[in-house]
Each structure stands twice: as C-alpha cells, then as structure tokens.
Design goal:
Elements lengths: L11 H8 L8 H7 L1 H16 L7 H14 L12 H12 L20
Helix pairs in contact: 2-3, 3-4, 4-5
Amino acid sequence: MTTQPALPFGDPLQAIVREHRATFRTGFAAWLASNRHVWIAFEREANRVWDRGRRHYSARTLIEYLRHESALADDGRDWKLNNNAAPDLARLYRLTNPGRAELFELRVMPGSERFA
C-alpha cells in the first residue's frame, strides 16, 4: 500500500473542507489527505467534461470512469473509490470552481445537515 505524505496545514483544499465541514461527510478531510491523487483526477476529468461543452454531468459517472482507468493503469497507487466519495468530490468541485457549480446537481438527504 502506498502512503502519501500529510498535506501542509495551509493546504487550500483542507481549508475549504474545514470551512464547509457541515457540507461533507465525517472523515472526508482525512480521506482527501490520503487520496489527493483521486481529487486531482476527478477535477481534471470534470474540467474536461466542462471544456467539451457539458453543463450538467454525473459525479458518479466520473468515479466509475476513474475506477476503470485506475484498474487499467499499473502505477502502484492505492485508489480508494467507493460510492461515498462522489457526492463529497462534487461538493468540493463546486466550492473550488464556483463558475462551474451547475455541473453537478446536489441532493440533500432527509435529516442531513448537508447543503449545496
């Protein structure tokens, strides 16, 4: 298993997650710190979708694509992609790319503290 170094305290993504902690599931900040490569790939693919003219897309579709690509690549990285990551990655994308916020539709589960 490949481990990644801890992100610096001043990391802007972690600051966004801390600032909007009620938006993300518990443990997302730690997951993000260990899976930064997943975020980078997710953001890259979301940007590719946007740049191709799509204004609405599925975060779960991107996760499935990344699963497929990581299964074919033999790069030694440990990809931890379960379905729980998709909503949090979509929320993070919306926060870091406000001009592209409509790309992912967010849903609020009954009883959830999460918001768009």
